[in-house]
Write a structure and sequence with these properties.
Elements (H helix, E strand, L loop, with lengths): L1 H10 L1 H21 L7 E4 L5 E4 L1 H8 L1 H17 L6 H17 L6 H27 L5 H4 L1 H15 L3 E3 L3 H7 L9 H19 L2 H10 L1 H6 L4 H27 L1 E3 L7 H11 L11 H20 L4 H18 L2 H25 L1
Antiparallel strand pairs: 1-2, 3-4
Length: 358
């Protein structure tokens, strides 16, 4: 029974401890600071529809792109033991391709949006395959391999449309980035839920999760067991490409335009931090997608909290860095091992004291 409880702490709930504790601390802190911080109310938006409003809605809505990217980044991290630092630039490319297809027709219809989405996914998957090939075939460290696209990606996004800012005005695009008429929950939040469900179904009906973890833990052993580690690593980058396209389209739809310079700028580091805060090993191996999703919301809740405390925008990144460093250190394998040993000692002492009392 004792070993079973220890395994649950290490492999199950234990991996989610840090992000859950971080969320709880932020929630309690904000409730003490302002009891109405998480209040939710219904308001009429500019289109006259009833929608949900409040800090909590703003947090889960604003974190949508990051949550989607964190899911894909988790898969790449688990399989390759490294991170893709080009997701922001790749999202700009996918967003530009999305807008290019939309602007090529006389009007924006539901059919043209679907086609534009598929084109954006294909484009992002191709760039993901490029990164994946460098990592899986040529054995280049992920961060170095993706540095190429990180450097030139936004220039490619600019070339696609031949301009820095191309507007897309359509009720459909507005609904994707805002609210679907009759549904009070922001559409990006629904998209995150849909992506998470798709990942869950894929993991349930295929062996992708097991293969990914096996390759990340020990690629040589995985190959001896018949797992094509090269394909799994390549596939993880391609799947991340789909996540990149979804995030890019959400970003474009929010603004109603494509701007290669500002779309999801600096999101790469937040995506990596979301994976780390989620309790996932940045060196590869076992992972929990839910942890990365919670990590994304932790980052955005921290940002909103700092702004609510009137922290100057120039200082927000510094405060975020301090808090995130603390969270990452607490969630490091060294600290986790020490906490596990401490808990074991406490349990042993309790058992000894109970036996002595008997």
């Amino acid at each position: 029974m004792k070993n079973k409880s220890n395994n649950i702490f290490k492999n199950g709930l234990g991996q989610l401890t840090i992000p859950l504790v971080a969320i709880c601390i932020l929630v309690v802190f904000n409730l003490i600071r302002d009891p109405s911080f998480f209040s939710i109310e219904t308001v009429f938006n500019s289109d006259g529809n009833i929608v949900l409003s409040g800090n909590l809605i703003s947090i889960i809505n604003a974190a949508s792109e990051l949550a989607v990217l964190a899911m894909g980044m988790t898969l790449v991290t688990a399989a390759c033991g490294g991170q893709d630092i080009s997701v922001g630039a790749a999202a700009a490319i996918a967003g530009s391709a999305f807008v290019k297809v939309l602007k090529s027709g006389p009007s924006i219809t539901a059919f043209s949006v679907v086609i534009a989405f598929l084109v954006a996914c294909v484009v992002a998957m191709l760039f993901g395959a490029f990164n994946g090939t460098l990592v899986s075939v040529f054995k280049i460290q992920p961060m170095i391999a993706t540095l190429i696209l990180f450097t030139c990606g936004r220039s490619i996004a600019y070339w696609i449309n031949g301009g820095a800012s191309v507007p897309v005005d359509s009720p459909i695009i507005k609904a994707i980035g805002g609210f679907i008429p009759g549904i009070p929950v922001p559409t990006p939040v629904l998209i995150v839920i849909l992506v998470a469900i798709i990942f869950k179904l894929v993991f349930h009906f295929t062996s992708l999760e097991l293969f990914t973890q096996s390759v990340g833990i020990n690629g040589s052993a995985a190959r001896l067991n018949g797992i094509n580690s090269t394909f799994i690593k390549l596939l993880s980058f391609i799947i991340l490409g789909v996540c990149v396209a979804v995030a890019g389209i959400i970003g474009v739809s929010r603004l109603g335009l494509i701007n290669h310079e500002t779309l999801l700028i600096d999101v790469e580091m937040d995506a990596i931090l979301a994976v780390a805060i989620g309790g996932n090993n940045l060196g590869g191996g076992k992972f929990k997608l839910l942890g990365s999703i919670i990590g994304a919301y932790v980052i955005h809740m921290l940002t909103v909290t700092l702004y609510a405390m009137k922290v100057p925008s120039t200082d927000v990144k510094a405060y975020k860095a301090i808090v995130i460093i603390i969270l990452v250190v607490i969630g490091s394998p060294v600290i986790k091992a020490k906490i596990t040993k401490l808990m074991t000692r406490i349990k042993n002492r309790k058992q000894i004291s109970m036996k002595g009392a008997q």
